[in-house]
Specification:
Elements lengths: L1 H37 L3 H18 L3 H24 L3 E2 L12 H14 L10 H22 L3 E2 L2 H25 L12
Antiparallel strand pairs: 1-2
């Protein structure tokens, strides 16, 4: 019993370090993507994000589970942001490879965001109402920050903000449910099936 208690404490200390690293790397990647896109060099941010994502997957206890989650989040995010572009509510000055689609650096940001779901945002699991509310507020704020830095244009600001709020209200709980199903950092003792 004493050995188990020490093991749990050691795991918690390691976990806190991983949580901090995950949060810091997400912030670094977000700024790299947004600032490089605003400056007209979006591939720099995409490259930084992909290095962080690769490190994240390599760090996972179950890399295939984490990769599966990241792939699903990237598809959801690419479809969502492309819909906003196609509706003419949002535009991106750089990084667009296909007309009417989200730019590559936004897709990279979705992959980067997915790296936080099972680590620094793990505390939101099982709190779907809170996830929805945080998504409704924080999702649009992230886009607004990118607007202020010059990486995103809100062509129809009111429509875009309403859509972002409603979209993130629905997307965030869905992502938390997916992270429960595909948890490359969880253990069987946490009830992951």
């Amino acid at each position: 019993m004493v050995g188990q208690s020490l093991l749990v404490r050691a795991t918690v200390v390691i976990h806190k370090g991983i949580v901090f690293a995950n949060f810091a790397l997400f912030q670094l990647g977000w700024f790299a993507c947004v600032i490089s896109a605003a400056q007209g060099y979006p591939w720099i941010g995409t490259g930084v994000a992909m290095v962080i994502v690769a490190w994240h997957i390599r760090s996972a206890a179950q890399p295939s589970e984490e990769f599966h989650l990241l792939a699903l989040v990237v598809v959801i995010g690419a479809v969502w942001d492309s819909l906003l572009v196609a509706l003419g509510w949002i535009s991106y000055p750089s990084g667009t490879l296909l007309s009417g689609a989200a730019p590559h650096w936004i897709v990279a940001l979705w992959a980067l965001f997915a790296t936080s779901l099972n680590v620094s945002m793990r505390w939101l699991k099982g709190r779907l109402a809170l996830a929805a509310l945080l998504g409704m507020v924080c999702g649009p704020l992230s886009y607004w920050a990118a607007v202020r830095l010059g990486a995103v244009d809100l062509v129809r600001p009111t429509s875009a903000i309403v859509a972002l709020s409603l979209g993130w209200f629905l997307i965030m709980p869905m992502l938390m449910l997916l992270s429960q199903r595909y948890d490359g950092f969880g253990t069987r003792s946490e009830g992951i099936s």
